[in-house]
Amino acid sequence: MAHDRTAIVVGAGIGGLTAAVALRRRRWDATVLERATSLEPVGAGIALAPNAVRALESIGLGDPVLDLAALQGPVGLRRPDGRWLVRGDASMVGPEPTVLLHRSQLVDLLRGALDDGAVRLGVTVTRVDPGGPSERATVRVRARDDSEEAGLAADVVVAADGIDSPVRTALFPGQPGPVYAGATAWRFVTPEPVAVEPAETWGRGSVVGLTPLADGRVYCYLTATLPEGTRFRDEVGELQRRFGHWHPPLRALLGDLDPATLLHHDLRWLKEPLPRYDVGRVALLGDAAHAMTPHLGQGGAQAIEDAVVLAANLRAAPGSAAVIGPALAAYTAARKGRTQGVARMSAQVGAATTWRSPLLVGARDLGMRAVGRWVLPRAARRLDWILDWQPPVA
């Protein structure tokens, strides 16, 4: 079926690909422009909470995601020596499970839901003009060989170009960018299956998380409170020094770690929120709009929600700005308060993981042990407003 409404999506991450899938289901001709020459995410898993799974269900991808994923099992927090601070099963934090999979599996699934040619790799967006009441948005792009630039026009442009979004910077030139959250993070996925009990371990200014995937491999993330930009000549050796004496199986996992599979990034977020997520015919989503720390596991989920809500608001919009403008304004109204609230809450949770004072850490751990199993369902109730989200009705 021919599409008479066109969208350009800048960025082929999870949010951008989801937006393209959702828009195409709403009869938009959506093209994704990605500056990388391949879509091969490495070294990272992703947890999709129930709100994200519902969003994917609304665009026909719920069952395929569940087919690929592991369901979250026991949950809890440990000390570096292995003693449990809080322990329970997944039912204590809600009736619907969180699903766990490798990020590359989700990217492959989303791309597979798009037509051939819908994703153009090796294309750098150099300029975006948001358009106006009587003109479409335009995008200037440069091909991978840098030989020439070309102009593209669309009824809507979706900026899903990440935490350092050039589109956001151009549209909001006086807006402060992302700030350091106080911790740096390493991530990797084991090459072979490993038997682990899923949990987070909190130490002094450090966190380790072990998450089994459906194929038996393990996604591991580690954080440390360090000055922004800290890097090490021997990253694996530094992890072994910092975490090798923690409870099993960390020593074994780090001892077998291939440096080429290790990711290391500082944790940053948009502490100063954007005033809106739409300018002219451009809509921002995901990290470009509201980058957040990973402490609630909601960064990818909120990008997926954004994409589904944006497409729902544009479902009946023809190409005229008289309709697209209000549709994008409605998208901002639906997403701004929610996503910025999630970002603030995630930063608050993350702050407790950066404590280094023995007194503060001791009090934190004692408090967790004292409340025991009571803390998990109570904490889950604080997240109800996030996890109970429902996608727009078609």
TrEMBL record:
UniProt key word Transmembrane: yes
Name of the protein in question: Monooxygenase
Record's keyword annotation contains Membrane: yes
Organism: Luteimicrobium album
Transmembrane segments: 6-23
GO molecular function: monooxygenase activity
Keywords assigned: Membrane, Monooxygenase, Oxidoreductase, Transmembrane, Transmembrane helix
Pfam families for the chain: FAD_binding_3
Residue ranges of domain FAD-binding in the record: 7-344
Lineage: Bacteria, Bacillati, Actinomycetota, Actinomycetes, Micrococcales
